[in-house]
Write a structure and sequence with these properties.
The complex is a heterodimer of chains A (70) and B (417).
Chain A: H1 10-13, H2 15-18, H3 23-62
Chain B: E1 5-10, H1 11-24, E2 28-38, E3 41-49, E4 59-63, E5 76-80, E6 88-92, E7 98-100, E8 102-106, E9 112-113, H2 127-133, H3 135-143, E10 145-149, H4 153-164, E11 169-173, H5 197-208, E12 213-217, H6 227-232, E13 235-238, H7 243-255, E14 260-268, E15 276-284, H8 300-307, H9 310-319, H10 322-325, H11 331-349, E16 357-364, E17 367-372
Parallel strand pairs in B: 1-3, 1-8, 4-5, 10-11, 10-13, 11-12, 13-14
Antiparallel strand pairs in B: 2-3, 2-4, 5-6, 6-7, 8-9, 14-15, 15-16, 16-17
The chains are: A mainly alpha (70), B alpha/beta (417).
């Protein structure tokens, strides 16, 4: 197998990809990739929001009274 | 693309991994994986985040950098994630060479890339269902491989419904032969009597949809001969009247990361004399929950029988009498339950349903009532501990076996002795 240096080179290095897919297959795979990307983005967003919520809770828990005069 | 290796990762585990990356600001982390062979290659089943300092072997590295600062002694799966870019999965060998992997995420739509492309379904024949579901969901529904365990009333209705909306691949499992009383199922004909139910149903499905690839396995769900088909399938469907079979398939679902659709119906005796009519429909996505943490089983003794082996199971089957367990069966109820089950699957593939789901249909005073009971969460007494365990954990005893969950079971039959 040809050695590849970058991720993008994979697309030309992998022999099975060299068989030209039909236009319908290309369209299917493109749509599959879009759905997969959206699924990962949604999971990422949920995870990020959860971590942000945790950090906000930690910030609130660490907050102390500052004003004790007058 | 005909992928040799495929990375399978439950959405819940991916969410855990991304959460850990976000918390720690790290560039990568490792997950434990198990490998399972399939006809067209090998599945790398993601189990969960790796614990401890040692890198697991084999491992999945979830990375948000293309350059990994470590070398791996044995082949390692890498899932490269970068916000705004498509995710990429590849296999990294010890020489640093990369081979692309297919990628399946157990998330709404069951998105997968790099799978062997199945023939395009005939768009004209199924134009109505494609129009209603949307192109993506319909194509996904057509290309999934369904393992249907139980070919009775519910199983035959589901199989025929799937065949009629364009499903391309199915495996049917049932150890029983067709009897006169089975003719109210879908597709059974008088000529089928004494033939294995799975064979008879397969024949009728081929008549409905000649392009359907259907395999009949006239064996019990716990028979080792269904294992290759379970590894190959994408969705496991249980339409059984035995909780031993239900539990067995639930275990396979968790081990090999296959979402499970379970349908159970009943027209049961009650002390008041009024029949209790209802159904439980459960859509269970590995990583989120399992059968045992989402309602459990109504009859744990049947699970014990299956665990004693095939001989005990055959004896148990021979001694069962339907009148001790139920008043009878209603095709109308089977149609409602399987309709709800199929709608649940359609909604998940169309990304309208985002999680596992447990629906209960109960008739009260001649009025159908539908309840959403929510799904459970992994706990130490359920099957979830074996998530993604593959062949390695197939024969390991479960700690949970003496504590089969009884939370919200399907109403037990009061006259069963």
């Amino acid at each position: 197998m040809q050695r590849v240096e970058t991720l993008d080179e994979l697309l030309v290095a992998e022999p099975s990809v060299l068989t030209p897919p039909t236009p319908a297959e290309v369209q299917d795979e493109t749509e599959n990739l879009q759905v997969l990307t959206r699924a990962v983005e949604r999971i990422w967003r949920q995870a990020h929001e959860e971590v942000e919520r945790e950090r906000e809770q930690q910030r609130r828990a660490a907050e102390r009274a500052r004003f004790n005069l007058d | 693309m005909n992928s040799q290796a495929r990375l399978v990762i439950p959405g819940a585990v991916l969410q855990q991994a991304i959460r850990a990356l976000e918390r720690s600001h790290a560039d990568w982390l490792a997950c434990t994986v198990e490998r399972a062979s399939r006809q067209s290659g090998e599945d790398w089943l993601t189990r969960g985040l790796a614990r401890g300092r040692q890198l697991p072997d084999p491992a999945l590295v979830v990375a948000r950098t293309p350059v990994l600062p470590v070398a791996f002694a044995s082949p390692t799966a890498v899932l490269y994630l970068r916000q705004g870019e498509p995710p990429r999965a590849y296999l990294l060998d010890s020489r640093g060479q990369r081979r692309p992997m297919g990628l399946l995420i157990l998330a709404p739509g069951l998105p997968e890339v790099g799978a062997t492309v199945a023939p395009a379904p005939d768009a004209e024949r199924w134009s109505r269902v494609a129009g209603a579901l949307g192109d993506y969901a319909w194509r996904r529904l057509c290309r999934l491989h369904y393992l249907i365990v139980g070919c009775g009333r519910n199983g035959s209705l589901i199989a025929h419904a799937l065949a009629r909306i364009g499903a391309h691949r199915m495996t049917l499992v049932d150890p029983d032969t067709t009897e006169l009383c089975n003719l109210d199922g879908d597709g059974f004909l008088p000529d089928h009597i004494t033939r294995p139910k799975a064979d008879a149903l397969a024949e009728s499905l081929r008549a409905v949809n000649p392009t359907l690839e259907v395999q009949a396995l006239p064996h019990s769900a716990s028979d080792y001969r269904i294992l290759p088909a379970a590894r190959e399938a994408d969705v496991l469907i249980t339409a059984v009247d035995d909780d031993g079979a239900r539990w067995t398939v639930a275990h396979l679902s968790v081990l090999y990361l296959k979402p499970m659709l379970d349908v159970g119906t009943g027209v049961l005796h009650t002390e008041s004399g009024e029949p209790l009519i209802g159904a439980d429909i459960r859509w269970l996505v590995p990583g989120e929950c399992c059968l045992l943490c989402t309602g459990g089983v109504a009859n744990p003794q049947q699970v014990e029988v299956v665990r004693q082996g095939l001989y005990a199971e055959q004896q148990h089957r021979a001694q069962r009498h339907w009148q001790r367990e139920r008043l009878g069966s209603l095709r109308s109820l089977n149609m409602m339950a399987t309709g709800l089950a199929l709608r649940t699957l359609e909604d998940y593939l169309a990304m309208r349903l985002h999680t596992s789901r447990w629906l209960r249909l109960v008739y009260q005073d001649a009025t159908p009532q539908l309840h959403e009971l929510g799904h459970g969460a992994p706990n130490r007494n359920c099957l979830c501990a074996h998530t993604g365990g593959g062949d390695k954990l197939l024969t390991q005893p479960l700690d949970s076996i003496r504590q089969i969950s009884h939370s919200e079971p399907w109403v037990p039959n009061p006259v069963v002795r």
